[in-house]
Amino acid sequence: MPDQKHHSQVEIERKYDVEADARHPQLVGVGAVAVQGEPVRHELVATYFDTADLTLAQHRTALRVRRGGHDAGWHIKEPAEEGRTELHWPLTDDDEPPAEVREHLRPLIGDQSLVPIARVTNQRDSVVLQDAAGFDLAELTDDHVRSENLRSGGTQEWREWEVELLAGAPDKRDRREALLDAIEERLRDAGARPSESSSKLQRALGL
Predict the structure, then answer these.
(1) Distance CA 207, CA 203 (A)
(2) How far apart are CA 124 and CA 166, in angstroms?
(3) Which residues are within 8 A (CB) of 52 and not within 5 positions of it... i.e. 6 or more apart?
(4) Domains of the chain
(5) Whole-model pTM?
(6) Is residue 3 over pLDDT 80?
(7) What is the rounded CA–CA span in Å between residue 62 and residue 60?
(8) Mean pLDDT of 100-129
(9) CA dist list (Å): 78 to 32, 86, 140
(10) What is the mean pLDDT of the chain?
């Protein structure tokens, strides 16, 4: 089987817990935001993998296969100086981690087996925020989440908002922080609270 090409990107985002009846605020006028697009719905199902003793989680690394949405495929998320580095491989027909994915993780897991540890089903409504020139600054997502802990059998349901910077975001770190801070202020006015969990996986596993 030929090697599957992968690509990577830096993921800079913030997560917020919200109540079931919360409503998105208007963000036009916040920083450089000039256009708030119409929401687009995605049905996402992600299965997360780790070793039996959660070696990846101990190294702040996550492996998942996601079906649905614009970035379906195999994803590895790793720590980065700012945000996280997310690596993508193409979707496969089954839920067996591809050899290229295992090879990338070998320095962390050696020859240990990778097993499913959680499944996250997410109904996502996403809105793109653009500046006056039409560049994509950020994506605001409204997630209705159901998780299954495949280790314990427990389930959870919650709602959260995420703000992720896109390619048109400011090129200076302090300006990126300023944009995120300004959006956060508007979201908190609408009832959002900074999430107590850094990721859906962490929450699903109760870490």
Answers:
(1) 6
(2) 17
(3) 112, 113, 115
(4) 7-205 (2.40.320.10)
(5) 0.92
(6) no
(7) 7
(8) 97
(9) 29, 6, 22
(10) 94
